[in-house]
Amino acid sequence: MKKPVFEGSSVAIVTPFRSGKVDFDAMEKLIDMQKNAGTAAITVCGTTGESSTMTRDEKIETIRFVKERAGDLPVIAGAGSNSTENAVEKALDAKKAGADAVLCVTPYYNKCTQQGLIAHYTAIAEAVDIPVIVYNVPSRTGITIAPETYEALSKIPNVNGVKEASGDIPLAVRIRRLCGDDLNIWSGNDDIVVPMMSVGAKGVISVAANIVPRIMADLTGRALSGDYEAASELQIKYSRLIELLFSEVNPIPVKCALSLMGLISNELRLPLTPLSGANRDKLTYEMKKTGLI
Question: What is the pTM (predicted TM-score) of this model?
C-alpha cells in the first residue's frame, strides 16, 4: 500500500505574470488563499501554470517560492517532457527546489509505445527519491496509458499514483482492479471528481480550486467521508462554472476569472491569448451568480 501524497483537493495553481515576469506578490496572495481554504496540496508549474512557456530558472525560482510559503502543504511540481532526459533534469531541479513530489506528463508529439512509457517513468523514478505522479491527459498528448502499463508502473516503489485526466471512468475502474492500493488515483477533471472518487480516487488536482478552493476542498472531503449525496450536490451546483472554466483552453478562462476577482493580472504568454468576449461575458455572469464577484 502506498500512502498518497495528498487526499482531497490540490490546486493546479496558475503562474501570475506582470509585465512579462512572474508576479510573486500575486502568487503569495494565491497561496495564502489556498492555505486558508483547506486545500490539501499545491501543484505548481503544471499545465495550468503555463510551465511550457517558463524558463528553467523561472520554474526553479517559482517552485522554491511556493515551497517556502506553502507551510505544511505538500508541493507537487510539474516536471514532464517528451524527452526522458529533459524530464529527469526537471525532476532533479524540482527536488532541489524543495518539491515534495513531481507530476510528469506522458511524452507528447513524438509519443512512444507502452514499453516506452514504462522505460520513461522508470528513468524518472530512479533519478529522484521523491514520489512521482504520472499524468495521463490524452487530449493534450495524443497518447493513453494502458491499464497493463499502469500495473507495471505500480510496481515502481516511488511511482505514487496518477493524475487521470482521460475522462474515462471505466479506465479508472480497471486501474483499481489491477493495481489496488499500489497506485493512487487523482481525478484530473473537475467535472467528474465525484464519479472518480466513487471508484477509489483520492481527490482531484483541480483548476477550479484556483477560484473556489473551499468548495473543492469541501466536495472532496465529503466524498472521502462517504457522503456522496452532499458531494454530488456540490458537483452539480458548480458544474456550469466548471464548464465555463474550460470554454477555451486552460488556463485562459481561469486566469480571466482570477483577474475578475482582482487577484492577478490577466496576462498570459503566447501562444495563449485572453478569453474571447462572448466566453468572458458568460464566465462573468456565472461568477456573479455564484457570488464570486
Answer: 0.97
